[in-house]
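Let us practice reading a record.
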Amino acid sequence: MARISDISIMLFPWGAKNPSVHEIVDAAKLAEELGFYSVTLPTHMTMPPSWLFRTFPNRDVLDAMVVVPAIAAATSSIKIGFNSVLLPLLPPYQWAKYLATLDVMSGGRLIVGAAMGWWEEDFAAVGVERKRRGRLFDEQLEVITRLWTQEKTTFEGQFYQLNDMPLEPKPIQKPYPAIWIGGGVKAIGRAARYGESILCFWPDEEQAQSLWIPKLRDEGSKWGTQPKLASFTFAYVAEDEQDFQSNLPKLREGVAFEDPSVDPTRVTISGVPQRCAQRINALMQAGVAHFVVEFQFHGLESVSFGMRQMERFARDVAPLL
């Protein structure tokens, strides 16, 4: 049975209307008050000229690595984290130190959403070759988890080398904070080895049952783990059918990021409250264990718009779960 605590909120350090850190922190505080599981932010260096972003009147991107500590300081119980940190963009020791410190600062509330990254501008900004991101990502995960669990770490990889290197403080959470691996089917092996969950784009019920769950089970058996399936998706709680139809173009543009033929009514949590609840319950029955939802159409709408949607979800959808 689904609950509001099975749902996390994604907030954005960018927008068609520039958000302030104060606004984002207020949204996180509201999410905590309403009972959502976590709030997460993306960590992109830049904004690409494609997809939804082509309509933005600005190119501003706040640094999520600054914003999330502000959220940690302003909240007390909600989980906090990233969706996702792009590990290939910075050295693994820097990630391990920063994330361990954030886990300590938040009292053990950190979720480490981690991904390879996809748009070229992020890699160009820091001088990293995008074509190497998969191999970099694998070494990063190994180095970071070793630094969190070993007194001193020695590692000799293709890209990173450490010799008898300590890291203090260690994370509060043991053996280390939950890692949610963002990616597609090819990332399931990494999620099974290092992560608590695979966080993927909007699987429908058939995909969850026939593709994701069997592969997660198979890969988990290799490592003695039980990785979960988490879905990242757009959400919109409509007042009525007319309201939903007026916002359907934004949903369609959002899911077209992966495949223009994808039906947004099948993969988003959207519509009148009863339909939103039905979608969540159906996906959970198919094997989705957790949802990371965004109420701002990836930044097309303002922080205040997203906050009103969070309140409507808690008031009108949560009781139906």
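A brief commentary: The chain has a mean pLDDT of 96.
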